[in-house]
Each structure stands twice: as structure tokens, then as C-alpha cells.
Amino acid sequence: MNESQIDLAHTVALGSIGDEDRRAVAELLDNADPVLRAAFTREVERTREALTVIASAVATEPPAALRDRLLAALPPVSGPGPAGPGR
After folding, report:
1. Pick from 12, 64, 62: which is nearest to 37 by CA?
2. What is the CATH number of domain 3-72?
3. Span 27-42, mean pLDDT?
């Protein structure tokens, strides 16, 4: 894989892919040789795994009162209908 394709795999893994990149991915996956497709897919998976590890390492529990503050900030629900969980 070349540097551009690696960058594209990282963009896919981050979920920040635009229309132009989406076309490039489709072209790569539709027309590329099987070895390149496998390498691209593997790079996306490895990047997602790395992002998961990083996110897990820095994740913190939100403050206990956050949910109550957020719910209190919502406008009142008017009329019949499902109120949703916790409402």
C-alpha cells in the first residue's frame, strides 16, 4: 500500500470519510487486487483497534450529577407519547 492508501484507511477507521474519499475507497475495493484489498482492510481494522485501546485508556466516568443536569436542561415533553427511558 502506498502512503495515500494508508491515509485513506485511517480516514475510514476514524469514520471521517467524505464523498471524494468514499469514491476512492469504493474504487480501491472494487478494482484493486486481492492483496491490496486485504492490506487495506487489515489497516482499517488495526487502526480501529488502536483507537479503541487509546479511548479505553483515557476514558473517565462522567460526573454523577451530569445525567440529572442534562435532563433538567431539556424542555418539558408536551402531549401524549413515549417519554423515553428515565422520563
Report:
1. 12
2. 1.10.10.1320
3. 90
